[in-house]
């Protein structure tokens, strides 16, 4: 178990990883001020924008996976809803807006303590441009998706599930987890 920090951020006391009453998990507890520092998964939120049978992807200008294509997504911020977070990320990466935002994929990556919540949304029009975290932003048909240049497995699963099930009504929500050898 990796210690999240050596000293308590509140009082600089040393941290102990221990059992506390009425809890099933071990926790990081300050030996001095007794604060319990809970460590929980991070939520990544994003939206796959759809426009006339095509999807909008952004090529990453930042690491990890700089230069590869991704569904506009990023860490959810405090004080926003998960849908607003997805819209914010889309605006930051592609200066685009969607309507009719709906759940599509909940994807757990236990190995790195992250949960991806990815939505589908209808692009308001073919209006988008390169955001600060992107090198390029482009609409792709299913045949045009550059599969060998997709940034993350979550992105590949998101796109594949969309194209395979797009005619299904009502929209199916997929709940999956990362598997390195999984056939998508
Ligand atoms: Zn403390």
Keywords:
184 residues; Nucleoside Triphosphate Pyrophosphohydrolase; mainly beta; single chain; eight-stranded mixed beta sheet
Brief overview:
The chain has helices spanning 82-94, 153-165; strands at residues 15-19, 26-30, 36-37, 42-51, 54-60, 69-70, 73-75, 98-109, 114-123, 134-140, 174-177.
Q: Could you explain how this protein is built, in words?
A:
It is a single chain. This protein is mainly β. The chain folds into two domains: 1-39, Ubiquitin Ligase Nedd4, Chain: W, CATH 2.20.70.10; 42-177, Nucleoside Triphosphate Pyrophosphohydrolase (Alpha-Beta Complex). It contains two helices and eleven strands. Strands 4, 5, 6, 7, 8, 9, 10 and 11 form an eight-stranded mixed β-sheet that branches. The protein has a three-stranded antiparallel β-sheet with strand order 1-2-3, with no helix packed on it. The longest helix has 13 residues, at 82-94. It starts with 14 loop residues before the first strand and ends in a 7-residue tail after the last strand. The model has no long low-confidence stretch (mean pLDDT 93). Bound molecules: zinc ion. Zinc ion (ZN) binds next to loops.
Share in helix: 10-25%
Structure ligands? zinc ion
Q: What is the CATH homology-level superfamily of the largest domain?
A: Nucleoside Triphosphate Pyrophosphohydrolase
Which term fits the overall shape? elongated
Count of alpha/pi helices: 2
Classify the fold: give the CATH topology of the largest domain. Nucleoside Triphosphate Pyrophosphohydrolase
Question: How would a crystallographer describe the biggest sheet?
Answer: 8 strands, mixed
Termini, distance in Å?
31 Å
* Unreliable segments of 5+ consecutive residues: none
């Amino acid at each position: 178990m990796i210690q999240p920090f050596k000293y308590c951020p509140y009082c600089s006391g040393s941290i102990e990883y221990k059992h506390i009453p009425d809890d099933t998990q071990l926790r990081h507890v300050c030996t001095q001020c007794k604060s319990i520092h809970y460590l929980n998964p991070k939520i990544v939120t994003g939206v796959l924008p759809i426009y006339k049978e095509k999807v909008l992807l952004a090529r990453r200008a930042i690491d990890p996976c700089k230069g590869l294509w991704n569904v506009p997504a990023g860490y959810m911020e405090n004080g926003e809803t998960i849908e607003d977070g997805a819209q914010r990320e889309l605006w930051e990466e592609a200066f685009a807006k969607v309507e009719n935002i709906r759940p599509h994929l909940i994807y757990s990556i236990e190995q790195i303590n992250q949960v991806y919540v990815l939505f589908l949304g209808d692009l308001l029009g073919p209006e988008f441009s390169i955001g600060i975290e992107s090198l390029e932003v482009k609409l792709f048909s299913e045949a045009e998706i550059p599969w060998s240049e997709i940034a993350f497995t979550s992105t590949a699963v998101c796109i594949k599930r969309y194209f395979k099930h797009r005619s299904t009504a009502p929209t199916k929500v997929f709940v999956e987890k990362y598997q390195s050898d999984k056939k998508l």
